[in-house]
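Follow-up to my earlier ticket, as requested here are the two runs.
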Amino acid sequence: MKKIAIVGAGPTGIYTFFSLLKKNVPLSITVYEQADEAGVGMPYSNEDNSKMMLANIASIEIPPVFLTYIDWLRQQDDAHLARYRVDRASLHVRQFLPRILLGEYFRDQFVQLVAVARAQGFEVNVHEACQVTDLEATETGVKLWVENELAAERFDLAVIATGHVWPDESTSTRTFFPSPWSGLMEANIRACNVGIMGTSLSGIDAAMAVVVQHGEFVESDDGQLQFNLDPQSQALNITLMSRSGVLPEADFYCPIPYDPLKVVTENAIQREIDAGADGLLDRVFRLIVQELEQADPQWSARIALQTLNADTINEAWFADRKKHDPFHWAQTNLDEVERNKRDKRTVAWRYTILRLHEKVEEIVPYLSEQDVQRFTSGLARIFIDNYAAIPSQSIRRLLALREAGIINILALGQDYEMKVEENQTRIFNQQNSWSFDVFIDARGQQALKTKDLPFPTLRQQLLATGEEIPDVGDDYTLQEPALARGHIAFGALPYLMHDRPFVQGITACAEIGAAMARAITQPASWSRRRLPFMEV
């Protein structure tokens, strides 16, 4: 019976376990989870989120384990759903619900996984509140150490599924939080001038974590949402900021599963990759133009798509938003997407961009260093803006805060500096400066390198081979050092972002988990190309 260690029991670890179970070959599986409960995952845990924070994925998109998310929800009693202000009668597959509720679903599926695996003859051990402190690749497998244990345990395969990596809570202060998941949920934020770096869902969620300490959202009988600020919290003011100062779109209606693309097919992308790195980005951009023109000729003409290139399309994409007040634009966009959802109308250009990002991502490992930077500052921003459209309810809450006079948005421009001081954080550019009593950095997950690995022996083994970024095969097993081949599957998302900039999300976790499960029976067939480090 082969011995498998799964380090991390969030979605990636769960889907890996589930994929191993489906092979029907009994294994010895040991799961290590540093949180108190295995099977939840930090983005969905009760400790790191509030009931106000919505998961940016609906049941129709979540790969099921034993049950679909919607079927699991329908099994819950009314009182339990009511704790999250969820009405059973209104449940539907495209609904965005609290992250904590999704965490409960994953926890329940994990518990079932353990029971079913044991019933099928698997040996399963689960270690909760247990941190893995080191890993070492050896000729016969992997050594694994946990805190407070001097002796290592040996495994045939170690699956690294540690998920997102945020700054430790010890780096937070009373006035500065390096991420929304670095102690913000437990902090008592006074009514003061609060700055939040980031205007995406993470930034909006950080704002929600603050405002619920100072008032409440109330929905009227006609469905209008307003925020009632506590009388003693009149000093509360929140500023969301980013370089552009634009807000994301509200999530839009489209067919799921996705319809196939007509021009930018897998074969078309492979032909361009085979033609070489020189001009690859520009050749693929021409395919993108053809796809968009076929899908939505009116929109393509309106933005003069034929006159744009991989460098200028970014400005055209955001031009309309930059012309208008962000809150007025958000209200108009919200009204539009809600009409489209009601009428089940798909906006062709939005849907085409959504389907394009996964296909176009395939070229990233083959781009020249210069084109990686061009892609990062151009098309990547468009794709991220499109697929990271946020729940309509989050937009409604933001607009309610604006109506209450609590929140505003600041466009910093491309060149700004941030100085964290003992009692305040200052942001300044060439024209202005701003000071905040409390500051939250909500810019999201950053790509990580080998030097950031929390396992010192494995880190040194990788660095000794010159692996600045972990090099993995199609089953995500490490290709270097040679000792690690077939023994360490590396599915930690932040370290994969250098050549898969859109890898975040539950669907990616499921795909990675299924691939890593293959490592137990077959070797990797190819290796991802090492790249210049890229930040999106």
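Run two:
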Amino acid sequence: MKNIFILALALITSSLSAQVLSNKEGNYTEADSLRGSLRPERAYDVQKYHLKLKVEPVKQFISGSNTISFIAEEDLSVIQIDLFENMKVDSILQNGEVLAYERKHNAVFIELDKSVKADEKGEIQFYYSGHPIVAKNAPWDGGFVWDKDENGDYWIGVAVQGTGASLWYPNKDHQSDEPEEVQLDIAVPNGLMNVSNGQFLGEKDLGDGFTQWSWKTVNPINNYNVMINIANYEHFSDSYKGLQLDYYVLPYNLEKAKKQFEEVKPMMDCFYEKFGEYPFVEDGFKLVETPYLGMEHQSAVAYGNEYKMGYLGNDLSGTGIGLKWDFIIIHESGHEWYGNSITANDIADMWIHEGFTSYSEAVYIECRWGKEEALEYLKGTRRGIGNSKPIIGNYGVNSEGSGDMYPKGANLLNTIRSIYDDDELWWKTLKDYTETYKHQTIDTEQTEAFFNEAVEVDLQPVFDQYLRHSQLPQLQFKEENGKIGYRWQAEVEQFAMPVDIFIDETEQRIFPTKSWQFFDSEVEDPDDIRVNDLEFYIDSSLME
């Protein structure tokens, strides 16, 4: 049990749902640039993916096609589509004509038979097949999970965030471009069901031992969220304020699921109030039991927390508060607002997904059990922060930043809330941000500007220090000529940030800069000063 707990604690420093990409420390390759940059061959806006696939569990083999509809942003004669190099390209068609192509790393450069002019629509049919990469430890590495349940039935899932959706289907594998809709026609062996994103269109017996299960989304969706889940599922449903709630679980877990998933409604009560309406009402909300821990697959959230409270029965905060709720239900569903609805243009800005979603855990705690417990939980999660690398990664090379983006990102947001010092304004700003950028891809600068505009304090130095540098700002104190002085030590030039302290247990706000300031004579002993470390995530020290 102790080993499981230690493992769970270690995981928070890397990723709770996404894969850490490479930790290359700047040693990037041509393949990284092909994937991470927006080259001229990617100057198009995807409108729709229509996947038609046959999944053969015995062979661990998939085959089929993706029809890709797009609008050219510039004149296109060559188009880049991404597909992992271990997958076979069978043929690529445009208007029924077979197209020539060249492969380079995990990219396919296709010579269009007829160029597509700027603002015109284009479409290609991309036929492919192969044995997709098998995940060794999903969701921390990308790939297929070919498993069997306790009844001996196949139980198959896929997790590819970070690694890339092009691991298993051809697409424009860059977060800045989301198809407006996706249809999935997935054929699986008779007796099994496939559950994918969006609304169920129907099933069709193909007469060859396979049944096709069809699903369709009508909202923009991240490439890595497009998903298949295959098992002998039991289905039950509910509704919340007109939102369809569907649950797909293994048959022998049905009663446990009915009890555990009761948490969805109080979660929705909280998130609707704080973040706004569920952003994909037309596509519904699903929890789907998976053979791996969890992922935020849009409208089909992957659930593998074994019907336990906390994180596989453990509390990552060490406070006990994390055992009051099911971590995977809350965290992965929080991604529907942050990561799925609001998406970072570049994976370097993934803190927009993970910092806000990790903060949603505390938001849920506050809704259910009050602000004090939410603050205690956030403080507890700090033990998973390394402060050794910046949260933001390198742009244009498919590079995540530090795994600190989870708990440090959440504690940054809580610190900004404390700087606001006005909860009514904070909740209004957070909800306005969430609704303003609904169904959009954005970047860190837009996020910073939005939260900066709401207050008189300049938050830019704060964002710079916490996101673009590894170390925390340190509030330094010293005694000099009978007075107590204070200042910030930080890497950001002209760093300044208000902070609340207690002097003999009386709280007051001070406004340190990088220059020394001194208290009046009533503060005689540094030991009489205590930083409000529940609401501000900083370091502090007494200078010799």
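The only thing I checked on run two: The first helix runs from residue 2 to 12. Let me know what else you need.
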